[in-house]
Design a protein that fits this description.
Helices cover about 70% and strands about 0% of the residues. With about 425 residues, the protein is mostly helical. It has one domain. The protein has a two-stranded antiparallel ribbon. A hairpin with a 2-residue loop joins strand 1 (about 180) and strand 2 (about 180-185). The longest helix is centred in the N-terminal third of the chain and has 31 residues, at about 120-150. The chain is globular.
């Protein structure tokens, strides 16, 4: 039990570190400490060791423990196959390992969260829920203030982190980009994409948990306004679209409760279809370019071009099914040019999965997210954090315009909330008395 408590507390500390990851990135640069850049992988590895130790220590070998071990074994077998397949395609082992550290630890973290919560008592999960919400909303509030500070005092901010105006990049541990003469605010995180998504998650969490915590109306309104404005200040268009989408699926179904499920389902499928079409054909790009040519070029046209180039690399049936190998494409992190690999950007979950794991991998991820989302909508009374809406956003909007696997730390937060809601439903946990 002591080790389990240590593991739970370690998970909460990890969440705090995730929500301030930009600071850790900056520190790794200031102190020139390369190992600090691997802190999240090391931390998840430690959580995994604790999980395995608890599995060994647990003597009853119940079905929950067996399921955890089977999932870990299944994931290990899958990645062993992918490593062998990638080596068969003559990809350098260093490129494969670099890719492995991104995907393996994300999936393992989901299994760790599952084990922590499924083995916990109802009271323990309720306490974990409260602590998670307090951490996310508190750090979300601070992050929103940081976004505003960066927006209104850009020169002070860039001087603070050691950048000169116009010297954008990730060489200082964070990535700052300017658009239209304004900084795309990163808050406490390392990119504007992560910060914008984090603010959207906080907004959904705030709205969904208000009744449970009986939050003061005016304070709730203040936070909701702050989170909404901060999303816009990051200028992350996908998160802004997510804000509009969430508002619509909350307001429209309330007008017609009889057709609520159908409205949400049709909206989700239609949104998925529009974003799929927008990244494969030029029609939507041509339409948007008439309104804002630069935005259409950067956000839509380039994605279509990169998607097509990567798809054109799939020359054989195995490549279509299983991909081009781990790390063949993707321009973040490791410099692959030293290995004579000409990589293309994989800045969407869709093309990232197709390139690394083929259409089987992409279909499997969509299927898992869809099944969990449907399950949570059918048991929405237990989804008190709004994970079902966050998953719709991840699957229907971000899937074609952002890379979930590389978007740390929001991928960690989404996984944590999705597992929390799923386990709450399985255990039939009543959260109605949480705020009392």
């Amino acid at each position: 039990m002591k080790l389990r408590n240590v593991q739970i507390n370690a998970l909460l500390i990890f969440l705090i570190l995730c929500c301030t990851s930009g600071i850790l990135g900056l520190l790794s640069h200031l102190f020139d400490f390369q190992l600090l850049r691997l802190w999240k992988e090391v931390y998840i590895a430690l959580l995994l060791i604790m999980t395995l130790a608890l599995q060994i220590h647990r003597q009853d070998n119940n079905l929950k423990s067996l399921l955890t071990m089977r999932m870990l074994i299944g994931v290990t077998i899958f990645f062993c196959f992918e490593i062998i397949y990638s080596m068969y395609l003559s990809l350098p082992i260093k490129v494969i390992i670099y890719q492995l550290k991104i995907d393996f630890f994300v999936i393992v973290f989901a299994i760790i969260c599952w084990d922590i919560m499924i083995q916990n008592s109802k009271v323990g999960i309720i306490n974990l829920f409260k602590k998670n919400v307090y951490i996310l909303l508190t750090l979300g509030f601070i992050n929103a203030l940081a976004i505003a500070f960066e927006r209104f005092f850009p020169h002070t901010f860039t001087n603070l982190i050691g950048l000169t105006w116009g010297n954008w990049g990730s060489n200082t541990g964070v990535k700052v980009i300017v658009s239209g003469g304004h900084i795309r605010s990163i808050g406490l995180l390392s990119t504007f994409v992560a910060s914008g998504t984090f603010m959207l998650i906080c907004l959904i969490l705030l709205v969904e948990t208000r009744k449970i915590f009986q939050m003061n109306y005016y304070f709730h309104l203040l936070l909701m306004t702050l989170f909404s404005v901060s999303i816009i200040m990051t200028t992350y268009k996908t998160a802004i679209i997510g804000l509009v989408f969430y508002s619509l699926v909350k307001v429209i179904p309330s007008i017609s409760k009889k057709y609520r499920a159908k409205i949400i389902s049709i909206s989700a499928v239609a949104t998925f279809a529009v974003f799929l079409i927008s990244t494969h054909f030029y029609g939507i790009n041509n339409l948007v370019s008439k309104i804002n040519e630069k935005m259409a070029y950067n956000s839509i046209f380039l994605r279509i071009e990169f998607h097509r180039e990567i798809i054109n690399q799939l020359h054989s049936v195995p490549e279509v099914l299983f991909g081009l190998g781990m790390g063949k494409n993707g321009v973040f992190g490791l410099d692959k040019s030293v290995y004579h690999i000409k990589s293309l950007p994989t800045d969407s979950t869709y093309i990232y999965l197709v390139s690394n794991y083929g259409y089987i991998g992409a279909a499997l991820v969509i299927l898992i997210i869809a099944l969990v989302t449907i399950y949570l909508f059918k048991n929405e009374i237990y989804d008190i954090v709004g994970a079902r809406y966050i998953l719709i956003y991840t699957m229907c909007i971000e899937f074609f315009y952002n890379n979930f696997f590389a978007d740390f730390p929001t991928n960690i937060i989404v996984i944590l909330l999705a597992v929390l809601s799923t386990v709450s439903s399985i255990k039939n946990i009543n959260y109605n008395t949480v705020g009392h």
